[in-house]
Amino acid sequence: MNREYHKWYSAHLERDMELLIFGHSGAKVLIFPTRCARFHEYEDLGLVSELRDKLEHGHLQLYCLDSMDAETFYCSWRHPGDRVRRHLQYERYVLHEVLPLMAQKNSHPCTIAHGCSFGAYHAANIAFRHPHLFRKVVALSGRYDLTVAVEHFRDLLDGHYEDNVYFNTPSHFLPNVSDAHTLEHLRRLEVVMAVGDSDPFRDNNHQISAALWAKGVWHALHIWEGRAHSAPYWRKMVPIYV
């Protein structure tokens, strides 16, 4: 199986960024790691191995990103407004550096945004914000409203609210999408979500599902037994949904 390591200086982030590529052809999967995790996490958790057959047969090609969460939403010393602005720099890195690399290496028309846990937030947020760039979203055990404290998970913006927060909170902006062009592309997306029935963000997943149905976006929300918010569950999910 093809495995490539890439590292370059990002002009958008003004720092070196690393990523791993697995596979040689097929639909391109943009993978965001879990909270503050590294680009090699997807491999470390055994998720690449679960997709080995699809990778070796040229059905999928994985692009595993590094995280910037420690400089964005989980950077508690930074002003909340600066946290989300740093996140937007990360988004520009993905849009203007990583996606062009993917297009250069692989001309397949399908790009999938994918992540587990906090990576599911990143995958859903970028795909719902830029649906014309993606064909599918696979979001597992995701949290889609960072402004609400649930269990021991705190409000990651500390009560701060502005346009940048609104437009990076799928639970907030999705219900109000009205642009015909954006809705057309949203309705072309294949959206797959999975969450445990005792996951603290189960209700948030149902909120996203309701918002998607209200906009005529067909999708699947799979409810798994238990919390289902860990690598053993994700290893079962990814061969089914990705």
Largest sheet: 8 strands, mixed
Class by alpha and beta content: alpha/beta
Q: Would you state the CATH class?
A: Alpha Beta
Instruction: Write down the secondary-structure element order.
Output: EEEHHHEHEHEHHHEHEH
Number of strands: 8
CATH superfamily: Alpha/Beta hydrolase fold, catalytic domain
- The residue ranges in which pLDDT falls below 50 over 5 or more consecutive positions are none
Radius of gyration: 17 Å
The appropriate CATH architecture is 3-Layer(aba) Sandwich
Going across the biggest sheet, name each strand in turn: 1-2-4-3-5-6-7-8
What is the averaged pLDDT score? Answer: 98
Number of helices: 10
Q: Distance between the terminal alpha carbons, to the nearest Å?
A: 18 Å
The global form is globular
Estimated helix fraction:
25-40%
Query: What number of domains?
Result: 1
Strand content: 15-25%
Indicate the CATH topology.
Answer: Rossmann fold
Describe the model.
Strands 1-2-4-3-5-6-7-8 form an eight-stranded mixed β-sheet, sandwiched between helices. The chain has a single domain, classed as Rossmann fold (3-Layer(aba) Sandwich), CATH 3.40.50. The mean pLDDT is 98. It is built from ten helices and eight strands. It has helices at 41-44, 47-50, 52-56, 80-105, 118-129, 163-166, 170-173, 180-188, 202-214, 231-241, and strands at residues 3-10, 15-22, 27-32, 60-64, 111-116, 136-140, 190-196, 219-224. The longest helix is centred in the middle third of the chain and has 26 residues, at 80-105. By secondary structure, the protein is an alpha/beta fold. It is globular, with a radius of gyration of 17 Å.
